[in-house]
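ligand=carboxymethyldethia coenzyme *A
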Amino acid sequence: MKLHHVGVAVRSLEEAICRHEKMGLRLAHREVVASQKVEVAFMGDGPYIELLEPTSPDSSVAKFLEKRGPGQHHLAFAVPSIEDEFKRQVAAGAELLDKAARPGAWGHMVAFLHPKDHGGVLIELVEEGH
Ligand code: CMX
């Protein structure tokens, strides 16, 4: 598995994009992921920083911001096949938060693993190229 991106929850995407550009990271991709109620911006050239701003107060990321404030939200790893990785994770005793891969940003398929098995860190699996 290779690190694909670090997800960071932010209150203002505009402000966070400017801050990362000043730091020297270019904006690689920006998109509203309506199904997950977030607008995201990928910064850098990979592994990326994925900035996440909620688009609705009932979004998971809005709840995260309310509870914990801005900061690291998840780590995402690129895998060749989410279905195969599911089997490997289940065999290793990990709990899945998704029953099947679902569409994420940038045309990728994504799925999440429960943070309790990963030191409290939410893990995302990314299957690129869809
Ligand atoms: N970091 C650490 N722990 C977290 C967490 C986070 N970011 N988000 C949730 N958790 C914890 C919860 O506290 C909960 O713990 P308990 O079971 O002990 O109560 C557990 O993980 C499950 O969380 P939940 O919100 O109850 O689970 P759901 O099935 O409702 O949600 C989840 C699944 C976490 C994936 C979803 O809420 C979420 O965060 N979605 C955002 C997805 C996202 O980042 N999308 C961006 C676009 C995708 C892309 O990158 O392409």
